[in-house]
Amino acid sequence: MNQLKNFITGMEFSKETMESILESGIQLKAAGGSDALRGKVLTTIFYNPSLRTLLSFQTGMQKLSGIANVLDMSQSRKLEYTEGAVMDGSASEHISEFIRVVCSYSDVVAIRKSDFIPASDNSQTLGMSKEEMLSDSFFEQVLRYANKPIINMESNMFHPCQGLADAMTMKEVLGNVTKKKYVLTWAPHPKPLPLATPHSQMIMPALFGMDVILACPKEFELDANVMKQAEKLAQDGGGSFQIMHNQTEALSGADIVCEKSWLSLEHFGDWNTEKEIRNQYADWQVTSERMAVTNNGKFMHCLPVRRNVEVSDNVLDSTNSLIIQEAENRMWAQMALLRHILS
Length: 343
Ligand code: CP
Prior knowledge:
The mean pLDDT is 96. The chain is built from 13 helices and 11 strands. It starts with 14 loop residues before the first helix and ends with a helix. It has helices spanning 15-31, 52-63, 95-104, 130-133, 137-145, 160-174, 196-207, 224-237, 247-251, 271-280, 288-291, 313-316, 323-341, and strands at 41-46, 67-72, 79-80, 93-94, 108-112, 150-152, 181-186, 211-215, 240-244, 256-260, 298-301. The protein has 2 domains: 15-158 and 329-341, Aspartate/ornithine carbamoyltransferase (Rossmann fold); 162-327, Aspartate/ornithine carbamoyltransferase (Rossmann fold, 3-Layer(aba) Sandwich), CATH 3.40.50.1370. The chain is an alpha/beta fold. Bound molecules: phosphoric acid mono(formamide)ester (CP). Phosphoric acid mono(formamide)ester is lined by residues 50-53, 162, 302-303.
């Protein structure tokens, strides 16, 4: 693995460095930009759709006087990922050349590649094993070939830029977030969704020393290794970590309610059963009644959101909702990250 300032899991930098990135994001927001990255080139590579990630990286790089290129992989040649492959099939370029060529044009490269694509009818057509779901082998492969820093814009396991923007938003609203009560609550959803975002939304507040509660039905606990990492980070950062299966109890006294839906690892692959179980928890929708037990808690969601399935309109549109500020902060936080990585 290279020794560059990569940002793949969101756990690469110390708490002090992460604090300084957040501070820098807040300063950049106040200043409206900087010419710190004049002449620098960011290449973003998207295997999956995006609104916020694409526009926030592109606009952010422009606000730093840099250049942002976007490569849409749905329009690109098919790549080969297997080492030693005899490439006589449909793939016409190997990842080893692909990454080295991209790096030769770039100062920093950001990639979104999440392999779990929910089938539109929720049928059993999701051709991916649980082991693949819990692995970021693609990013490991990229790091073997890259000679420029790599940023993860969402992989199978982590979405660290979302976690970073969430942390900046909480810092803006709460000031010092240490020991503030943060609840990451599971939400109902018509489709099974990946784990990357909730993993990062659990890891990042833990790293900043918040009292983190993972609130979810018992079948929806997140990856055991990532939960262990969150517990360790929270302890090291001066906070705490616990898992609760009763949403109302979990939300009691919360300063922040961050909502997200994700699939059941316990029933991974058995999608009809998974859907039946998911449907049993429709009452996990966050409503104003649920929010009433919080400490006048702020509501967060990474977006996109299913209105009146995951959360009621009156919560999303309340003055305690931070969803648009959170989306905007994707840009400022990533600008600070880019500046740190390229400094
Ligand atoms: N929250 C987030 O990553 O949004 P996009 O999928 O639109 O980039």
